[in-house]
Amino acid sequence: MVRNIIKKAYATLVYAFLYLPIFFLILYSFNDSKYSGKWNGFTFKWYKVLFEDKSIISAVYNTFAVAILAACIATIIGTITAISIYKMSPRMKNIFMNVTYLPVMNPDIVIGISLLALFGMMRCKLGFMTLLLAHVTFNIPYVILSVLPKLYQLNPFLEEAALDLGATPLQAFSKVILPEIMPGVITGFLLAFTLSLDDFMVSFFTTGSGVSTLSIKVYSMTKLGVSPKINALSTILFIGVLILFILLQKREENTN
Amino acid sequence: MKKTWLSIPYAIWALLFSIAPIIIITVYSFCKRSTYGGMIYEFTVDHYKQLLEPIYINVFWRSLSLAAISTIICLIIAYPMAMIIAKSEAKRKNMLVMLFVIPLWTNFLLRTYAWMIILREQGIINNILIGLGIIDEPIKFLYNSGAVVLGMIYNFIPFMVLPIYSVLSKMDESLIEAAKDLGATSTQVFLKVTLPLSLPGVISGLIMVFMPAVSTFIISDLLGGGQTILLGNLIQNQFSVARNWQFGSAISIIMMVFILISMMISGKYKSEEGGGLW
Q: Which ipTM value was assigned to this complex?
């Protein structure tokens, strides 16, 4: 009995620690004061100011454009690579897995500065393209690592059976293998998308010429002094994430 | 049928964008620097020697110790939490796990910024304390190592809870029952059965918290002000304001080597399966 109360109190405390800051962030987006310490009454004006800020709107656009493009490219390359790793000899597999783990284990800041050095050496102009290349680079390994386990669960004779029954290799892939590994591909895509969306470190070093993502915009806003605009932005993002989560949960319940 | 040729696109991609950049910064870290920061391709170990100067040793020490403190506090908070989640009913379990994932999906910078609002001199805590008449002058919560540690714990604790939970939830209950039947007390069950079996998750968690904590420059930048300089800040500074890419590369290489070594050591204690975040 007492144990249960202690457990509940502990869990509540930890969750409060996790969510109180987010709660305050949201609460003060409705505060009619620039210095958000005191409560000066309810307002929507920060939302209006936010939507009038063109640089924020373009940062939101860039963030989603890079995340979607990078996740798509990484999913295609990653899935194809996973299939070929699955078929490799153990020695080649080992080499490829080590290469795959490299961006996963390397700290983000090292990925960022080393890509900056590379782009500098190749005389690439930093901007949207370099940002996209960088994001695809750190996304591919996560797709490979999500797809590979699904391949190992596959019945090894499935593809042979399809081929024996007269399917072309391409048909065997698209009609038999791909549907089987689809959950892994989707997980990989979502993982890549999330990582891109939330990335700051790599983007910070690999973008330039006025192309900024949301994280970079928030960073420069905190440097210029805090404005409740950021709170309004966080509120919108948080509610977006919440809705996405509820939708994903519903989907999972339906498939089960 | 061989399909090795399918791996060629990624082989080229990885060679160009994962391996070549690391080779480049390795070369840079041994290059001489011209007065205006240009690259002179002559061999030198000066940049590594420079790292042995007391100020930089201090930065190393501060980074490692703050990251270690945060990681240990995360473990202490997270382990009981992971146990509570693992032992709750199946229906609530999912939601309790999700509550740890949702903050990960909200922007990392915004989560850190939230603490600035709370801890500032005109922030929420100070306003409440002054409102209640407990203090007259606002307390400076921000811009010290304590605030940095708090920010690290707050941002990285899901990475500790999730892998430990994932191992605990897959654990075979009958092992615990067997231990109890054989007369073990609950402390003994925990120390001799639960803890050793959950070790892979603990190690994953330690790595997943320690690594971003030791290389961050955002948390120290926002919550530590200019006062708490960590390795990440040092690297960032060399690549932006100071324009000393050679020195920045040398610090990065050392940090990378350090992390790879600690990964290899911990990898020995980690079994193939279990302990992953998903």
A: 0.85
